[in-house]
Amino acid sequence: MNQPIDVLIVGAGISGLLAAGELQKAGFQVQTVEMEQTVGGRLATQPIRNGRADIGAQFFTVRTAKFQQYVNTWLQKDLIFVWSYGWSDGSLGGSTHDGYPRYAARNGMNSIAQYLARPLTNIQLNTRLAAIRPLSDSEKTGNWKAGGWEAADKNGQVFRSRALILTPPVPRSLALLAAGATPLHRDDQSSLTRITYAPSLCATFWVNGKVHLPEPGALQRPLSPISWIADNQRKGISPEATLITMQSSPAFSQAHCNDSDKDVMAELRAALTPHLDGNAIITEEHLMRWRCALPLTLYPERTLLAQNLPPLAFAGDAFKEPRVEGAALSGLAASAAIAAALTQLNNQP
Ligand SMILES: Cc1cc2nc3c(=O)[nH]c(=O)nc-3n(C[C@H](O)[C@H](O)[C@H](O)COP(=O)(O)OP(=O)(O)OC[C@H]3O[C@@H](n4cnc5c(N)ncnc54)[C@H](O)[C@@H]3O)c2cc1C
């Protein structure tokens, strides 16, 4: 049997990628597994013919000095740029410029994930884990902390590690542990089951012709059923094609998440029509259904280190703060907590 690696990280969204990078830099052996065929999770950019559209996070803000350090490096590398200092709500004089930069990535938001993944030595894509359990030795010896973890994907591939970081949306992480009959502490279970997410319906339209949107090519109306419309060409990520991203609000998405593609697209197309020039036509359209798009309830700390189990940290945008920055800071907090737990185990006689 192979020696267990130090840390298995489940999920290669921004929280998992930053956690993996920090632990690898600190000298730990890290394996990251991701169920999709590419990294990024909700930092998602869809290529459509010779165009590109951001279909998950559209931009991000920075509120902490810690995240600003990473963002400064990305700015220096010209990976990202300041897209705006606020959005119009579409009304006359309805600009909400507040002086705070909204950053976007030059080649689409997913390019941030690609950049973070590049130095990582062990990322396995197309690997959907199905069950995770503490190693059985732990049960025999009663030494839960030192026992480690065993995770299996749906094809029976098994990963063994001394520690674990779970970054999928929390209900999915809990399902993985439940499938392995992992005995989570009652308090941890109860804190984590409180975390729920709103879905999001996100449409992309290829438009031949002009689309009328206020500067800088985007509209944000948090209280409207269509909360966001943006032109990826004017954003600068799709120079060859006018691709429009449209996102519905959490309430609309919840009400319509089980409607047929045809019905959802009819509603979203109707919402785009007033912004189209008389001769403009939609020649192609796509729908992305994010089942867990935005957390509705937050855990009060940036990570949760599970009690009475081998080192296990939960991370992601449901921990203390939502959005890209919250997810990033949570990944960093989880990596620090796991590094400390492993160092403590290494120092035990
Ligand atoms: C439509 C939409 C618009 C948004 N707009 C913005 C915005 O403008 N600004 C902003 O700051 N934030 C925005 N967000 C939120 C932002 O995208 C997220 O907060 C952030 O990207 C979450 O990162 P994460 O690493 O926590 O999770 P994720 O990116 O979801 O990463 C988790 C990863 O785990 C993987 N995974 C899940 N289960 C398994 C499994 N069983 N086995 C292996 N891998 C698994 C997933 O495939 C995924 O890659 C938006 C989100 C959506 C959906």
Bound molecules: flavin-adenine dinucleotide
CATH topological fold name of the largest domain: Polyamine Oxidase, Chain A, domain 2
| SSE string | EHEEEHEEHEEHHEEHHEEEHEHHEEEH
Largest sheet descriptor? 8 strands, mixed
SS-based class: alpha+beta
Strand element count = 17
Name of the top-level CATH class of the largest domain = Alpha Beta
Subunit arrangement of the protein = single chain
Relative strand content: 25-35%
From the spread of the alpha carbons, the general shape counts as elongated
Rounded to the nearest angstrom, the radius of gyration is 21 Å
Distance between the termini: 25 Å
If classified by CATH, what would the architecture of the largest domain be? Alpha-Beta Complex
How many structural domains does the protein architecture include?
2
> Roughly how much helix do the residues carry, as a percent range?
25-40%
Mean pLDDT: 94
Number of helical regions: 11
Q: Low-confidence spans: pLDDT under 50, at least 5 residues?
A: none
